[in-house]
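Quick look at the format.
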Amino acid sequence: MIRPAAALIGILFVLGAARAEPVPAGLAGADILDTQRGTPLTEEEFLERVRSADILLLGEVHDNPGHHAVQAAILRHRLENTDRPASVVFEMLPRSKQPAIDAYSGDADGFADAMGWDDSGWPDAAIYQPVFDAAFEAGARLIAGDLPRDTLKSLYGAGPENLPPEILKVYRLFDPLPEAVRDEMTELQFDAHCGVFPRDRLAAMVTIQRARDAALAAAVIAAFEQSGRPVILIAGTGHTRTDYGAGKLLRLGLPGVDILAIGMVERGKWAGAPAPYDVVIATDPHSRPDPCDKLRKSHGGDQSG
């Protein structure tokens, strides 16, 4: 299991003092760390890497509005610095929504409603609105990246063989998993489900996580092969990881392509080093109730044994 790393947390704590230039809206107040060097990045150093990247993976904590403000700032900056058509892939939109996306002729303000966002189970569309605004302003193509619910349900019994061929191909790029990676993914699923499920019941959840990684990576690969750079992925930090997430699959599937994997974290809650991203961006934490309370009550408390 990943444990807190005092050195990384210490760096994130003092990053603000190293910044001399004002930062653009959205990035203001965020701390930026080059994880390979373990050193702060200035705003301009970071934005230079953003501008040069063929593919950007913008990992978020889903319910943190600050993370979506950062995503919008990065997205807007990258799209202002290209003369090529851009593609933005969303984890929050299942592939079954692509016909509706392609047929949509409205503006950014009406997009979430047109996609039935309120019934999707994702956090309030209002916190994603800055990302929609940036994408629409640039005329980017929006792409649904995640698997539909019926496909996800089918994975519980049958495993990855039920995936569409183009996604299964990407899934197989990192298969079979090394035992240590499988153990870590199982532990993360155990924590994500608040310890209410025994670890020996989590194999299907690991498969689903990997399938969703593969679906997102396949969508990015298809967009890149169709339209070229830039392609931007909007997804949770679990998917933008470079050790086994979509970030890993993309580097295996698109060797030589400049991919910048970003993980956004909350100060005081980041739990690991070496960080499985190229860049970590730390923001203020978002106030929320304990997400485990409801799950534990519905399952009669901790059943981890």
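Next, a different chain entirely:
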Amino acid sequence: MPVALSSFMPGLAASGFAVLLAATLLGGLVRGFTGFGFAMVFMPLASVVLGPVAALGLIWFIDLPFALPIAARSAKRAEWGEILPLLLTATLALPAGIWLLTWLDRETMRWILAVLVLLAVMLMASGWRYHGQPTVSLSLGVGALSGLFNGMASIGGMPLAVFWLGAQRNDRHKTRANMQAFFGVSTLISGTILWWKGILTTGSLLMAVPLFAVYGIGLWAGTHGFRLASEETFRRGAYAVIFLSALISLPLWDVVIGR
């Protein structure tokens, strides 16, 4: 690894840096294309290199400068009557997810993370949708699940994607706006708790610096692709990238490839 980069990521091998670069670019592409999915791509792969706790701190810093402006632009289109109940219970459940992250050992968390992502993407790709009108109790439950997953691995978008992709009559514009607005607010809330728990560190911030531009390129490409792609392409492309990222990260491959 070049000396300039090693100062930002001390002790990280060139292969590890390459994995982080690929995860950041692909995750940004999916996030720009769908409005969600960055963590579903990035966290399984980054956890292989850094471990789940360090990966969680890193992804927060990478996403922060982009999540807030995107949320501000989406605020007018978003349906805040649906978002606020979700935010309430997500905030309450977030500390429980962080506790699980720090309590469970590294390999167990990697298994949980990869399996959760695989199950979620298979559910979304299966075509199953929730077609009813969102009730308050359902929104509160989805929000709590989102907060729990967000604290464990920054994958709080998974339950929201399953919920909103069906509940909003497959309107991808509305889905993206709601998710982006939700992520903007929840990023600030989660950052406060992660800092208090000691997960957001100077080391995480320095490690994020070389990845900002890569993430920005992925977001830009994904956003422009969203404007051009069909609904079917929009879904299939995102599901394929997320599925492969989770599959590659499974700990069962460690022995096979000497990881």
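The radius of gyration is 17 Å.

See the schema section for token definitions.
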